[in-house]
Amino acid sequence: MNCELDIPSRVIIGADTRARVAQEIGFLEWSRVLIVSDPFHEKAGRISEIAQLLSKADIEVSTCTSVDGEPDTEMVRCGFQQFQADKCDGIVALGGGSVIDTAKTISVLARNEGTIENLMGIDNVARQGAGVIALPTTSGTGSEASKVVVITDSQSQVKMTGRSRAYVPSIAILDYKLTMSMPKSLTAAVGIDALTHAIEAYVSRQASDFTDLLALSAVKLIWSSMRQAWHNSTDEDARQNMLIGSFRAGIAFSNASVGLVHSMSEPIGACFHVPHGLSNAMLLPAVTKFSVDGTPSRYAAIARCMDLADGSTPDEECCRTLVNELHQLGRELEIPSPKSFGIDKTSYEEHIEKMANDAAVAGSTSNNPVIPTFDQIKDIYCDTYDT
Ligand SMILES: NC(=O)c1ccc[n+]([C@@H]2O[C@H](COP(=O)([O-])OP(=O)(O)OC[C@H]3O[C@@H](n4cnc5c(N)ncnc54)[C@H](O)[C@@H]3O)[C@@H](O)[C@H]2O)c1
Ligand SMILES: [Fe+2]
User: Fold this and answer.
1) Chain-centre distance of CA 363, in angstroms?
2) How far apart are the first and last CA of the chain?
3) What is the 3-state secondary structure (H, E, C) of 9-31?
4) What pLDDT score was predicted for residue 137?
5) Which residues of 15-36 are buried (b: 16+ CB within 10 A; e: fewer)?
6) How confident is the model over 333-362, as pLDDT tens digits?
7) Which pLDDT value is given to residue 69?
8) Does residue 96's CB lie within 6 angstroms of at least one atom of ligand 1?
9) 139 φ/ψ angles, rounded to the nearest 5 degrees
10) What is the pLDDT of residue 158?
11) Going by CA atoms, what residue is nearest to atom 22 of ligand 1?
12) Are the C-beta atoms of residues 337 and 387 closer than 8 Å to each other?
């Protein structure tokens, strides 16, 4: 078997482990760090908490809290200028996927020639970055584990993806206490994003034994805790399971690829400003229904791992149950359709041609179990509008 795996070199898991950040920076011998975060965490006092920990350990701190949405080239440039001006030598990312992707891109820019655009695409980074310690706060994207970044071009509004081992964070600190402030709607959207990573990695044409193990264990953890985390935001076991599940799913998809849900979700996000997790959640049931025929045994294994069926249930029945349960999950967690999100029907229909074009050429489409025709992609977009 030939296989290449890119994973963070150190992972720390547990309640209040954010307090370990100073010790970890000491080991890396950074003397001045840039904390990248967002306005929510600044207001919540979490940046000052981390900054104080670092100051006590004689580590100088500079903070950049301008990641106020999904990241674009302007936000990255702004953070990079600060990193250089303040002569930083490492980065602490405290936030969701938007913050972590911004930090990973600043880190890579700091040690490589070229523009942000040059460093996007697959394996276009020559040298490792300055280094990032990632503290995820959303339990969704798995960016703290992945070699992927998603950055929007501020001018064209096109979402660019970078995929290189240089984007893998040096250290991930999984402190579930940081995720407990998430409101219900965010818990639902990012949780289904993580579930989608696990499912798409398991059925991907690039899956390996190693990614299978992580993908299935992530499905199990996320499925068993998702509703609990949503209904009771203070359930610490459920929050911890969701964070560990999304981390495992992050390693799995980062090394095995995502599939058609993600290819079709990015254009909805770009055209209608739907957050990443939500547009995935809108599409997951319909795309799963479309894709099951490509690998019924793998989708059946997912259903069995969720305890929706046992070994005696035929694969086809497992697949039907899985699709129904994904629809049910979306309804229970109040995931809106594009229509109930407020997207105008005429505008949606006018964009279908362009969205389908973008989805057809996206890299992950070719890793989906069934490779769709252009018309099939358009049909899925149509069917998803009001369901
Ligand atoms: N790099 C990857 O591997 C990867 C994978 C999937 C998605 N992404 C990207 O990640 C971005 C989305 O990240 P996300 O879904 O984590 O959301 P996000 O980082 O955009 O955060 C969404 C909102 O939630 C707030 N928030 C974050 N943590 C919170 C908490 N604990 N309590 C309350 N509010 C909190 C943020 O301030 C923000 O307003 C997109 O740009 C997407 O393309 C990256
Ligand atoms: Fe995702």
Assistant:
1) 16
2) 42
3) CEEEECCCHHHHHHHHHHHHCCC
4) 98
5) eebbebbbebbeeeebebbbbb
6) 999 999 999 999 999 999 999 999 999 999
7) 94
8) yes
9) 50, 55
10) 84
11) 96
12) yes
Identity of the residue numbered 129: G
Place of tokens 């694969």: 315
Protein residues near ligand 2, an ion, with CB under 5 A:
193
Share of the chain above pLDDT 90, in %: 97
191 lines ligand 1 (CB under 6 A): no
Reading the block at residue 262, the tokens are 């993600």
Distances (CA, A) of 30 to 5, 132, 161: 26, 11, 28
Domains of the chain (ranges, CATH numbers)? 10-179 (3.40.50.1970), 184-384 (1.20.1090.10)
At position 187, the amino acid (one-letter code) is: T
* CA distances in angstroms from 234 to 177, 183, 190, 220, 331, listed in the order given: 9, 11, 17, 21, 22
| 152-189 confidence digits (pLDDT tens) | 999 988 889 999 999 999 999 999 999 999 999 999 99
- 301 C-alpha to ligand 1 centroid (Å): 29
Beta strands 159-163 and 148-152 are: antiparallel
Which pair of structure tokens corresponds to residue 41? 């965490």
